[in-house]
Amino acid sequence: MLTRLPPHPLFGGALSAVIPRSATDISELREIPDNQEVFAHAHTDQSLIVELVEYQGQVADQDSPRYHFEDIAGSNKSLEPGAFEVTSVVALPKSDVSLSECSSAWTLTGTQCVSKFNEEARNTVTLHLGLFRLPQFSTEVLITFNDPQSISPDSSSAAAAGTHGVPWTVQDFQRLLQTLTLHNPGLFG
Prior knowledge:
It contains 3 helices and 10 strands. The protein has 189 residues and is mainly beta. The strands form 2 sheets. Strands 3-4-5-9-8-7-6 form a 7-stranded antiparallel β-sheet, sandwiched between helices. It has a 3-stranded antiparallel β-sheet with strand order 1-2-10. One of its GO terms (cellular component) is nucleus.
């Protein structure tokens, strides 16, 4: 029997969402930018990032998930040909999300070849991206689920690759997207 997880407060309680089990709040370990909430799986190399980013009004709704995916690929130094690929972009029906204030919501699935901490070794990571567009607040909520598929033996992440523990699933990510709720619009300034 699955027990229902309670929503986890985000950004001081201005937002909340159901975060999967085995999540470690990275802000308890190191400094995280004010516009991010970062969680790592306790036993795998998976991570979840909830990020408030500037609304990109020049980007059409249907192009916005790819825009952010490519922005992340640039940050990950994964923009060369063959280092990143988008496999699907899907609009989320507003009836499926709790964040009713969004003008549109999207998911994107893709892969990137990423090196951690500027290492030479590159890991293949599936990125599940959720995007909620909030033009009235000049903000977009970007949720990224990093799910490593192959970890180089030379990577600092190699130690986590064979550990036990139940990994997070796409269903965990979808539950987070579906339960994201705004409690205080003052968060957006």
